[in-house]
Amino acid sequence: VTEKAEFDITGMTCAACSTRIEKGLNKLDGVIKANVNLALEKATVEYNGSVLTPSDIISKVEKLGYGAHMKE
Ligand code: 9UX
């Protein structure tokens, strides 16, 4: 099942940060498409809901050194 979730991202300072997160998420098994917007401090992630949960996505962002919270 394809799901889509939005996350508020904290800790990004330069454009390379958003690129790092975007690449990291796109590499994660189950992610279909991840987009990170530096100015809005927001990540939009399309993922396979039978492979990943939003908390897996948050864990990945945290492992990269940033903060993430799911938007309602
Ligand atoms: Mo820029 Mo971000 O030099 O972790 S890549 S601040």
Any overview of this molecule?
The chain has helices at 15-27, 54-63, and strands spanning 2-10, 31-37, 42-48, 67-70. The chain has 72 residues and is of the alpha+beta class. The chain binds dioxo(di-mu-sulfide)dimolybdenum. Dioxo(di-mu-sulfide)dimolybdenum binds at residues 13-14, 16-17, 20.
Name some characteristics of this structure:
binds dioxo(di-mu-sulfide)dimolybdenum, alpha+beta, 72 residues, four-stranded antiparallel beta sheet
Segments where pLDDT lies below 50 for 5+ residues? none
Lateral strand order in the biggest sheet: 2-3-1-4
Q: Strand share of the residues?
A: 35-45%
Characterize the biggest β-sheet. 4 strands, antiparallel
Shape: globular
Helix content range: 25-40%
What molecules are bound to this protein? dioxo(di-mu-sulfide)dimolybdenum
Average pLDDT for all residues: 97
Radius of gyration: 11 Å
Number-wise, the strands total 4
Task: Output the number of helix runs.
Answer: 2
In terms of topology, how is this protein built?
Blueprint: E1 2-10, H1 15-27, E2 31-37, E3 42-48, H2 54-63, E4 67-70
Antiparallel strand pairs: 1-3, 1-4, 2-3
The structure holds dioxo(di-mu-sulfide)dimolybdenum.
